[in-house]
Structures are given as C-alpha cells and as structure tokens.
Prior knowledge:
Blueprint: H1 4-11, H2 14-19, E1 20-28, E2 31-38, E3 51-56, E4 60-67, E5 70-77, E6 79-83, E7 89-90, H3 105-114
Parallel strand pairs: 2-5
Antiparallel strand pairs: 1-2, 3-6, 4-5, 6-7
Amino acid sequence: MANDTEFLKLLLPEYLVEHFDIIKFEEIDGLLHIYFEEKSSRPKEFSSLTLQSKGFLPEITVDDFPLRGKPVKLHVSRRRWTDTKNGAILQRDWNLIAKGTRMTQDFAEFLKKISRY
C-alpha cells in the first residue's frame, strides 16, 4: 500500500508535497483552504553558499483543482534565505502560478485544454 506522501501527490501538485509541509487545512463557506510552508531543507541550487533560514516571504494564494466538488485555495509560504557571508537575501525560484493567472500551472493547463472543446 502506498504511503501518505504518495497519496497526497494524487490530490495536490507534486512539488508542494515534496518541498512543503501542510500546516493546516480548513473549510470556510464551502471553500477548502490548504496552508503550506516551505520545508527548511537547504536549496540544492545554493549548495555552495552558507545559508541561514530567515523566515518567510509574504504568503501567496492560488486556485487549484476542486476536491469533492469544493473549490480549493492553496496558501503557500516560501522561505527566505540569507547568505551569511554577504547578507544577500535568496529564495528558490518556484513556478507556482501560471503566468497571468492566480491558479496553479496544472489547473491553468487543464482549463485551457477543456476550453478547446
């Protein structure tokens, strides 16, 4: 039997399940809100630097596929990293939002495909 992580990858964008922790979820007025925080693991793209986690960037909220007929809002908090040698603020480059929308890349592609029929 598959573990919880593999099951969540069927319901949520895979990169969120792999790189973010689910902090909480709640249903408000028929809308499902799921809150994520980026894990504190050091970004591979900055492996040559000495980094320290310095909190989070402002939360972004994006629309995703409905679950069980309920609209879904993903609330994502990304980490901010500081290079301890020069004080530079760094962050991973996540493509969480489809360009020109407020929805996930997968959901935007799905809507684009069904609008062609």
